[in-house]
Amino acid sequence: MRTETLDPAALRADFPILSREVNGHPFVYLDSGATSQKPRQVLDAEREFVERYTSAVHRGAHTVAGEATELFEEARARVAGFVGARPEELVWTSNATEGINLLAYGMSNASLGRGGAAAERFRLGPGDELVVTEAEHHANLIPWQELAARTGATLRVIGLTDDGMLRLDQAAEIIGPRTRVVAFAHVSNVLGGINPVAELVALAHEHGALVVLDACQSVPHLAVDLPALDVDFAVFSGHKMLGPTGVGALYGRSELLNALPPFLTGGSMITQVTLEGAEYLPAPQRFEAGTQRVSQAVALGAAVDYLDAVGMPAIEAHEEALGERLLARLGELDGVRILGPGAGVPRVGLASVVVDGIHAHDVGQFLDDRGIAVRVGHHCAQPVHRRFGATASTRISTYLYNTADEVDAAVEAIADARVFFGVTSGGVR
């Protein structure tokens, strides 16, 4: 039954890895922003499929192939429903990165004249503009850089304020009649802030531009309804939301998906083939060439069942409380700078910090010696680190299975690291 609160101690029993020790300490996993842990229910779902239903979906005519296809499509329906979409609006991908590249290369194909009149709105050339933000993960930046290079379009960038918020004043100046695509993250994987989707969508749609939402850091942590957000496309990855690696999803409005030329071509995405050409299936199958990630999709269906059973409002509230505690405790440390907005701004339970006088890798190693796993580096987001004068940061990211004690342990370890490396004589103020 869904509730507004959750008990992380009770949930932890579902996650086998959380019972282990690391370096002689209880394992504290605070790196879910990179990849989440998997509950037994997800592990069991994939194992059962492999043991009982392995077969070629949408191809075989035998009983097991039919059962496998049914499980595969049931998973699509459940994952689509989890984000408010219809099954035909959800394309299986290997991850969010593949989903964005699928879009960019589909638009590139349209720009070469593929897709006929239906693909006209995707065609780009000199004078057209693609808009991203300074806070993007490389996966939502480089594909658009490459698309601009292939088509002659111009890439434009919405900057950030000094406290890590998007400059909406600049967005209003940049997004205009030449804008064809506006691509941005729902939640920054470095700054943790929840971006103003409604305002950016309104600006884009006012000028007929398409909106591409990177929802990797929002779908696992917030109740997200993609059609209600009025975005045209969105991507998210299974491994960040209790699912396995190797599976993700591209959401798109049906009329757009059916007009977009495919990127990968081959078997299972066609209606008929001659030696001279081919005709393609409607979405989503037109984008699912070849053998699909079937057991992973089934496991992702189990993951959204688990999240639904806990309740996304409860998960959101739990992480908000952990995030507030994390910011407050980090704010007690001298010589520790938090990247991104502070308390009082909508954000998820994630914080990236720069510790004066200590490289992020050394901070991470110090925490790892205590069994605390965090992310160090530029988190595939070099431009945003450059914006705030940092080459790397230490990122602490929480999820439904984390506790306040674990947040405190991480902050106390950072304080102790400053003493250990000789950049302060005291710990937490």
Can you put this structure into words, describing what you see?
The protein has 429 residues and is α/β, with parallel strands linked by helices. It has 2 domains: 8-30 and 311-420, Aspartate Aminotransferase, domain 1; 45-308, Type I PLP-dependent aspartate aminotransferase-like (Major domain) (Aspartate Aminotransferase, domain 2). It is 37% helix and 16% strand. The chain has 14 helices and 17 strands. A hairpin with a 4-residue loop joins strand 11 and strand 12. It starts with 7 loop residues before the first helix and ends in a 9-residue tail after the last helix.
Q: Which consecutive residue ranges, at least 5 long each, have pLDDT under 50?
A: none
Largest sheet: 7 strands, mixed
Topology-level CATH name of the largest domain: Aspartate Aminotransferase, domain 2
How many strands appear in the DSSP assignment?
17
What is the strand arrangement across the widest sheet?
4-10-9-8-7-5-6
CATH H-level superfamily title of the largest domain: Type I PLP-dependent aspartate aminotransferase-like (Major domain)
The structural class is alpha/beta
Domain Aminotransferase class V: 28-409
GO biological process, one term: cysteine metabolic process
Catalytic activity: (sulfur carrier)-H + L-cysteine = (sulfur carrier)-SH + L-alanine
Protein name: Cysteine desulfurase
